[in-house]
Automatic annotation (TrEMBL):
Pathway: Cofactor metabolism; retinol metabolism
Reaction catalysed by this enzyme: all-trans-retinol + NADP(+) = all-trans-retinal + NADPH + H(+)
Protein name: NADP-retinol dehydrogenase
Family named by the database record: Belongs to the short-chain dehydrogenases/reductases (SDR) family.
Keyword annotations from UniProtKB, A to Z: Lipid metabolism, NADP, Oxidoreductase
Source species, domain of life: Eukaryota
Length: 320
């Protein structure tokens, strides 16, 4: 009985805090629509994690703009269902589903090999897929899941496709990071959380890694006509919080404050298409506008160190 009272009291306190902080939450959850009318006829786009949430809405929007959209999905069946629902909204949508499991480097390599065989150009790469606050599990290659999928998987995918992107220039890379980078730091002494694991901190670390990767890649690609920017999509009603009971509860309790997946896709779409961003690189965006970056996300030494550690874990050498 006492436990029940405490839980209810806790929920009331959280509810009061949410009401109190509503204006702040709204600031990060509302607004920001991509106003660009840019067309993407003849362009090829690749989106990871495109079968649900923000990724699916991004795929729909870019398909309506005329792009050939490759939806890279872990579960091909779910991917085909998503593609079918996109075609129901827009019958002319040129969407294709390909299998990609970012938790398995052999799947990433097989995916990239097939893509390089079948596609002549890649104009936009959107590193969108993500996993949040899962229990401690390892990827097929022994990496902690959140760093493995959110950062290392995309790091390898981008490495394998960078030549194609450069040949297709002007090209853009959009990395979906998060506001969560603000409370993240890179634990170089235990990058893969083998010593200790906290699911929230591991998520924040992976989202900071997304941001640092985008900035370092942008620096390295200067002059190549391939731009790289990172994005915070806002707080979005999606399946992302499925591993956290508390967040699932809070997200359903306060779903009115949250963005729809369609609204959450707007900043990714903006960074992918807006004409005024054609040469802008190494920046972070939220609500279709430049956004502030925490000091740890601006540290060039950390970015380089993470780049080297990631390359070493994956056994790759960037020569581009
Ligand atoms: N929802 C939010 O409030 C929020 C806030 C900030 C950042 N983000 C980021 O936005 C991105 C999209 O999240 P979402 O909210 O649409 O959640 P979501 O759960 O609906 O989408 C995540 C997608 O990633 C895919 N994915 C997960 N593991 C994968 C793997 N091993 N291989 C391939 N694909 C895999 C899932 O299948 C899914 O399609 C994520 O990177 C997330 O970190 C979301």
């Amino acid at each position: 009985m006492m436990v029940l009272v405490l839980i209810v009291a806790g929920l009331v306190v959280v509810a009061l805090l949410m009401v109190l902080f509503a204006p702040y939450i709204r600031k990060y959850s509302a607004g920001g629509t991509c106003m660009s009318m840019a067309r993407l006829d003849g362009k090829t786009v690749l989106i990871t994690g495109a079968n649900t949430g923000i990724g699916k809405e991004t795929a729909l929007d870019l398909a309506i703009r005329g792009a050939r959209v490759i939806m890279a999905c872990r579960d091909v069946e779910k991917g085909e269902e998503a593609a079918a629902s996109i075609r129901r909204v827009y019958s002319k949508a040129n969407v294709e589903v390909r299998e990609l499991d970012l938790a398995d480097t052999s799947s990433i390599r097989a995916f990239a090999q097939r893509l390089l065989r079948e596609v002549d150009h890649l104009h936009i790469l959107i590193n969108n897929a993500g996993v949040m606050m899962c229990p401690y599990v390892k990827t097929n290659d022994g990496f902690e899941m959140q760093l493995g999928v959110n950062h290392l998987g995309h790091f390898l995918l981008t490495y394998l496709l960078i030549g194609l992107l450069k040949r297709s220039a002007p090209a853009r890379i959009v990395v979906v990071s998060s506001l969560a980078h603000n409370v993240g730091w890179i634990r170089f002494h235990d990058l893969l959380s083998q010593g200790s694991y906290n699911s929230g901190l591991a998520y924040c670390q992976s989202k900071l890694a997304n941001l640092l990767f985008a900035r370092e890649l942008a620096r390295r690609l200067k002059g190549s006509s391939v731009t790289v920017n990172s994005v915070h999509p806002g707080l979005v009603r999606s399946e992302l919080v499925r591993h956290s009971t508390i967040l699932s509860l809070l997200f359903s309790l306060f779903s009115l404050f949250l963005k729809s997946p369609r609204d959450g896709a707007q900043t990714s779409i903006y960074c992918a298409v807006a004409e005024e961003l054609h040469s802008l690189t190494g920046k972070h965006f939220s609500d279709c506008a430049p956004a502030s970056v925490a000091p740890q996300g601006r540290n060039e030494e950390t970015a380089r160190k993470l780049w080297d550690a990631s390359s070493e874990l994956l056994g790759i050498v960037w020569d581009h």
